[in-house]
Amino acid sequence: MSSIHTNFGATAALATLRDVSNDLAVTQGRMSSGQRIDQASKNAAYWSIATTMRSDDKALAAVEDALNLGSATVDVAYEGLEAAISVTDEIKAKLVSASEPGVDKQKVNSEITQLKEQLQSIASSASFNGVNWLNISDSSDNTAELAASFYRDTNGGVYMETIDMELWTSGGSISPLIDDRSTNTGGEAGILTSTQFAVDAGAATNYVLVVNDSNSATATEIALTKDTTSDELDDMIAVVDGMVQMLADSGAGFGAVQSRLEIQTSFVHDLRDWMDRGIGTLVDADMDEEATRLKALTAQQQLAIQALSIANNEPQNILQLFN
Fold first, then answer.
1. What's the pTM?
2. Residues 255, 303: one domain?
3. Which of 36, 40, 66 shows the shortest CA–CA distance to 52?
4. Domain with 53 in it: what CATH number?
5. Largest alpha-carbon pair distance within the chain?
């Protein structure tokens, strides 16, 4: 049917062109943004999930940075312990050499004094970003906490997990080198200041390598004079040997934490990759598919424009009938 009032062909062609143009705009938007769902109106559920996961990914990025910071802190402490082991071994060797007949104990003591000062220098300088686990102060905790992970449970609650490392326990294991607290603690938080090694060795004197405010009331610093007896030397050697053993145990503890931090850092990195892929599955556009659709819609648009042009010329054909 033909009509001079209504061009049905043009109306149909225009509707087709409008639909194709809308589809083309959607496809072009996906091509430019790379996303299939970039606003809540397109799919509220998927958009909400993706937004939450992106927020969690930012939290995990912060955890990853914190893990790297923690690893650096542990590395510095471990290197300090290794250096302290080497110096303490030297002190032990000097004490053994001083037990030989005819050795000038005072000259040996001069060397030991320099080595003790080196130990204090190691303890005070083993600091990273203001954190020092080898030199304990009044504000130090006996447990170090390192950020490990961030997760969300099935109820939507968010939690932080930490790696806890016990630096010292009263009468137990010790990781720091020096207890530099102002109160009289018997130097229990430092390997070089603790009187516990003398007690464990059955020494007659509470020998330590460093005397400070934490232990000055009960401790005696290891030092040699010309009158130092063989029994006193034996006690000193036994005390220093106990310190060396604890230094080795402490180094092993730091090494275990280093290994766990490496594993956790790798896991968090992989977790972020998995999360990124999960978000992409929800909202990312398939660029190959969109590129193919773009070509098809462009062709459809051209055909729709041509069809509209033909439909608009139909009234002219009717006029030809009256000529």
1. 0.75
2. no
3. 40
4. 1.20.1330.10
5. 140
